[in-house]
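Retro notes (design track)

What went well: tokenization of the new backbones is finally stable.
What didn't: we kept losing track of which sequence belonged to which structure.
Fix going forward: every design gets posted as structure first, then sequence, in one message. First example under the new rule, 141 residues:
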């Protein structure tokens, strides 16, 4: 296990870097120290890849976080990335996966906004209207 001060240093670096090669270098260090499955580092890596406009790497990083360790922050990070990229189908798919995998336990107002934006982007909500089924299991599940 990496000492706490080194893990904190990695987190600080991950929040400040924007260049893809720096993120990849730090990701290699995380793997080297066996910390790839740590939710905070995994989420920070996911965010760094999103900041580098590499949603493919961000998704791969998110997928390496064990499902049982994913939390609101990790889900909101990946949902935000897909939302910003206007990847509406994937945003909605991930939202549905989150609800299914987490029994709705991590659903909050932030990730619900990403689901609504995806619905609007896909034309599922027209003319500023809303669909009262958006929270229903059958509709989003």
């Amino acid at each position: 296990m990496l000492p706490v001060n080194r893990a904190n240093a990695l987190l600080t670096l991950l929040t400040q870097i924007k260049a893809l090669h720096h993120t990849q270098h730090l990701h290699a260090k995380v793997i080297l120290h066996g910390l790839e499955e740590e939710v905070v580092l995994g989420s920070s890596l996911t965010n760094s890849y999103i900041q580098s406009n590499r949603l493919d790497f961000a998704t791969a990083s998110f997928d390496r976080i064990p499902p049982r360790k994913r939390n609101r922050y990790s889900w909101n990070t990946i949902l935000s990335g897909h939302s910003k990229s206007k990847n509406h189908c994937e945003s909605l798919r991930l939202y549905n996966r989150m609800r299914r995998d987490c029994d709705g336990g991590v659903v909050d107002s932030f990730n619900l906004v990403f689901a609504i934006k995806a619905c609007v982007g896909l034309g599922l909500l027209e003319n500023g209207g809303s669909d009262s089924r958006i929270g229903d299991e059958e509709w989003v599940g």
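Added context from the reviewer: Residues 88-101 form the longest helix (14 residues).
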